[in-house]
Amino acid sequence: MSAPAPTARGRAVLGAAPRPLLRMAFAAPLSVVAGLLLVTAYPALSWWPMAFPAVALALVVLVGRRFWSAVLIGFLFGAAFFSVNLLFTARYLGPIPWMALSVLEALLTAVFAAPIALAYRWMPRIAPGRIGRLLLLPALVAGLWTLREQIVGSWPYGGFPWGRIGVSQVNGPFAEVASWVGMSGLSFLAVLLCAMVIEIVRRPRVRRGIAAVPAAVVLIVLLVVPQFPTSEAGSLRVGAVQGNGPAGYFDQRERNAVLNAQLAASAPLLGQSMDVLLWPEGGVDSDPTANASTSAVLEELSRRVEAPLLVSAVTERGSELFNSSLLWTAEGQAGPTYDKRHPVPFGEYVPDRSFWEPFAPDLIGLIGRDYTPGTARPLIDVNGVGVGLAICFDVIYDDVVWDGAAEGAEVYMFQTNNADFRGTDENLQQLAFARMRAIETGRSVVNLSTVGTSQVIAPDGSTLDELPIDIAGHMLTDVPLRTGTTAAVVIGPAVKIVLGWGSLAGLLVAGAIVLGRSRRTKKTPAPVGTGV
After folding, report:
1. What distance in Å separates the CA atoms of residue 313 and residue 247, rounded to the nearest whole number?
2. 170-179 in b/e burial notation, b at 16+ Cβ within 10 A?
3. What is the pLDDT of residues 246-266, one digit of tens each?
């Protein structure tokens, strides 16, 4: 007589995978809602608490899903989020680049939704107890989310680390944790808290008080951990000029129009005492290293303000072009040149131009020059003070900022040009990164734009001085200096490896255990039934 069918208890012993919490008909629209909800956590709205329900909802719709349905859910979430969060890119080259970037980011999000769904299917089968459900599973899910942020931020063509959960918390009470574990670590802890709360709600048979302990510990850590201390080292009097000139790629302008706008906005600072005069990215629209008249203008300005200038221009060396930051004095260039380390793909250069040009020849043809990535250290000495540098989107990449701090930066000066994104919230999103970098490194940041918004940011992330968007003006600020490196700078790279790649290794181990148990179960002979 044949063996009886396995009971529900028997299937649990065999490690049956959980069913989806929500049918696809509900999960699909809710994933879109999650993506749109997450947008509100970032500038211009900056409703930082909304990141938590958005992440929680994005995870709930993945619970129990199989591979391809998880991919679909992840794509819908990513498309909803990035198509709105990156809408500013349409302002530069039109809808095609915006759609292409949004779809690419959504596809990467879709690919990495699958491992999270697998974690929800596999971990309960190998660790069904309280520790597994309330601690190990949430940690694995949070690590895989963090890995997805890291991959999106590094691939392809150097990646685009925009929309990280950590940066959404810059206005909230959890931001100081970034000074210990970096933005990736803060992303991990925020997602970990969401994943823990989900498991508390899903475990009605477990005493809620006991189940809530791990989540409560994470919340307390996020709330009470202070900013990592750095040492006061005096101040630097910085003049910063926002010229509001025609600095956009397609702006109509006469020769040296941007330079003249910067000179006009700098005039009120003549006769003022300062240690350095800062201009934004692209504030000089001719190469002072090759143009004697431009060099003479800068030398004269340095002489009149009795301070060095930190300017930015496109420089040419041989056949290569660089987006450069240069220190200029009354005697000419002083010190090394810093070249932007992460020029923007399809904005400042076209990778694999011969491959992509046939797909959009008109658009690709608009990008007539290709910048070469820089290799110099992001630091310059200004009268004995180490100044960390980043040009525009350099600020969103961990390596540039961390290298500056490790090399001895006592203050940061970020030069940017947001003219191509006038009328969008791009400048505010980038400014959120600058503020988070101040908190993360315990350093003041002077974030200066051609057109705004420009700010002087204290080491704790607060605003010391500001110039609004679309006006010409200047700031003259005593900027605090700091020494000593935060934990984020020291262990940040290791944290990213452990959280990201460690979670992938954990998922592979879980998968191997599930597969091994499944094979052993299939090989085990079924018990023979007793006839009557």
Report:
1. 11
2. bbbebbbbbb
3. 999 888 889 999 999 999 999
Predicted confidence (pLDDT) per residue in 388-401, tens digit: 999 999 999 999 99
**Which amino acid, residue 340?**
K
In this structure, which amino acid lies at residue 319? S
Which of 177, 185, 175 has its CA nearest to residue 147? 185
Q: Is 0.85 surpassed by the pTM of this model? A: yes
Structure tokens at 389: 């540098």
Q: How confident is the model at residue 365 (pLDDT cuts 50, 70, 90)?
A: confident
Q: Output b/e per residue, 391-405; b: 16+ Cβ within 10 A.
A: bbbbbbbbebbbbbb
Give the mean pLDDT of 208-227.
93
Name 136's Cβ contacts closer than 8 Å, sequence gap at least 6: 123, 127
- Other residues' Cβ atoms within 10 Å of the Cβ of residue 318: 6
Give the max Cα distance, the chain. 109
- 3-class SS of residue 380: strand
- How far apart CA 357 and CA 368 sit, in angstroms, is 12
- Residue partners of 147: CB distance under 8 A and separation at least 6: 112, 115, 499, 500, 501, 503, 504
Q: Dihedral angle at the C-alpha atoms of 241, 244, 249, 253, nearest 10 degrees? A: -110
- Are 210 and 192 in contact by the 8 Å Cβ rule? The answer is no
Distances (CA, A) of 85 to 43, 153, 422, 461: 9, 15, 15, 23
Beta bridge partners of 242: 473
Query: pLDDT digits over 137-194, tens only?
Result: 999 999 999 999 999 999 999 999 999 999 999 999 999 999 999 999 999 999 999 9
| Residue 447 dihedral angles phi and psi, to the nearest 5° | -105, 105
Among candidate residues 183, 104, 227, 200, the one with its CA nearest the CA of residue 499: 183
Return the H-helix or E-strand segment holding 270. none
76/83 Cα distance (integer angstroms): 10
Residue 483 CA to residue 503 CA, distance in Å, equals 34
CB atoms within 10 A of CB 267: 12
Burial of 473 (0-12, 13-18, 19+ CB in 10 A): middle
Beta strands at 309-317 and 411-416: parallel, antiparallel or unpaired? unpaired
Cβ within 8 Å of residue 374, ≥6 positions away: 322, 323, 324, 338, 339, 340, 341
Q: Are 484 and 179 in contact (CB under 8 A)?
A: no
> In 3-state terms, the chain is what percent helix, strand and coil (to 5)?
50, 15, 35
